[in-house]
Amino acid sequence: MWRCAERWKELLLAAGVDMAEVMPSDGNPLVFAEKHVDDHAATILVYAHYDVMPAEPLELWKSSPFEPEVRDGRIWARGADDDKGQAMIQVKAFEYMVRTGKLRHNVKFIFEGEEEIGSPSLNAFIGKHKELLRADVILVSDTSMLGADLPSITTGLRGLAYWEIEVTGPNRDLHSGHFGGAVANPVNVLCSMLAKVIDEDGRITIPHFYDEVQEVSPEERDMIAHIPFDEHKYMESIGVKALKGEKGYSTLERNSCRPSFDVCGIWGGYTGEGSKTVLPSKAYAKVSCRLVPNQNHADISKLFADYIYNIAPEYVEVKVTPMHGGEGYVCPISMPAYKAAEAGFTKAFGRKPLAVRRGGSIPIISDFEKILGIKTVLMGFGLESDAIHSPNENFPLDIFRKGIEAVVGFYENLQ
After folding, report:
1. Which end of the chain is more exposed for a tag (fewer CB within 10 A), N or C?
2. pLDDT digits (tens, 9 = 90+) for 255-303
3. Of 358, 113, 102, whose CA–CA distance to 255 is shortest?
4. CA nearest 354: which of 333, 383, 340, 336?
5. Is residue 387 exposed (0-12), middle (13-18) or buried (19+ Cβ within 10 Å)?
6. Can you give the pTM of this predicted structure?
7. Per residue, what are the HEC states of 226-282?
């Protein structure tokens, strides 16, 4: 991580910043850089992250995930899209503005190394360095578009709450023939509890979960309904025959402006080669909720833990450990920085971008607003086909180039 941070420092200096520094945090280091143009000019703070998701399962990659390879018009590597490739779009757009003498704004960069685990060290860093990070707007490329020929700007993000659950039954693994049917199996119990979190209509059953959920206005629902979306192609691209979600909402509403619950991983007992007739002592799961604006992740975290403890049967012991989380975010489309981004997309892609909410989470975006009082514009260029977080992550080179052009357009149009 330190070597990667140092490499970003070198790249930023080469791009034309006045200074760049690798700064320690309570976790992985951060990279801060700055280019000062004029005391009276607006200041843009560019945020990105250099950490990536694990590359496993490695056997599914067609080329080494950490040895980037260009083929078929794309760059293939872990982080090619999320977020090293998109961070490089920002750096190269900035470099173009510097080299051509067109830069009219002060620009700061803050690159972190913990976004994929919820940015646990960044809040403290921001609070400690408010003056260092002072800016008029934050610019981020860490989101996606509706399609290569359908540019869009993300105007909303869902929040996140994440937990690990441990269920303990007997004091050791037992012979399933001698004890099966007489002793509760922690894996069975865990599955039963998790199945109760969502009802048949796709609603989350946790008491008071929806108390602060902000309903989408009829006007916005109408706008979402007019977004070009081929549900058949959507299903085909991920290899499913049907979709499932909250009753009364469309697919695009379900995955962007409604809360959701997912089991991200579950394990316990014997999972090795062959068979072993065991009744396991313990079972585990990692679970998460995507939240919508107004839902406080700390409040939801407690509500979920209380619910699981309440439905846990007496024949097992249950432990719920809250992990990382964050709030949702909404960007007003009337703000000048959004209009500048819109103009940049129009220049690069030849058509006005759609304003859409997305289902992913970047928890630090809402924290930036809380701590620094700054709004963020999300100029993301990812595509569904980029396979972020999956084997064979990639990024099309033509989108990379258009992304640079769009960010240049942002600089040119921001007053």
Report:
1. C
2. 999 999 999 999 999 999 999 999 999 999 999 999 998 899 999 999 9
3. 358
4. 333
5. middle
6. 0.79
7. CCCCCHHHHHHHHCCCCCCCCCCCCHHHHCCCCCEEEEEEEEECCCCCCCCCEECCE
